[in-house]
Amino acid sequence: MREELTAALKDAMKAKDSLRLSTIRLIQSAIKDQDIAQRTAGKEPLSDGEILQLMAKLIKQREESAKIYEQNARPELAEKERQEIAAIASFMPRQLSDDETKAAIEKAIAETGASGIKDMGKVIAALRAAYAGQMDFGKASGMVKAMLG
């Protein structure tokens, strides 16, 4: 993942694509911040799955910012946020559809042997391990809860 970001950074520099370049630098900066936090806690640097989770978080932040800009009649700033979302999303794997998410949850429930709400954490952990960056875990946890409840 890190090599892919570095290659994309070089391509953006060559293409003089300032928006993509600044967005990639933003992603790399966030990764570096998390790596430092991990190192001070005595942990390993971020894995690819954790990098994908970090990028999903960055996308969510930009979606919230775009919504606020729209509400405050600043469409040009909202558009910039949406362009950053598109740049970040280009590094993310394809998002699972609702049907695919439901099937993945059913599979995770079967694999973990979950039988009730108390096992929800095990199911979500299995989903995070298998589908990092591919599913909205906020929505997925509601679906897991409904299936186990």
From TrEMBL:
SUPFAM superfamilies: GatB/YqeY motif. This is Glutamyl-tRNA amidotransferase. Pfam families: YqeY (PF09424). It comes from the Bacteria. It comes from Gellertiella hungarica. One of its GO terms (molecular function) is carbon-nitrogen ligase activity, with glutamine as amido-N-donor.
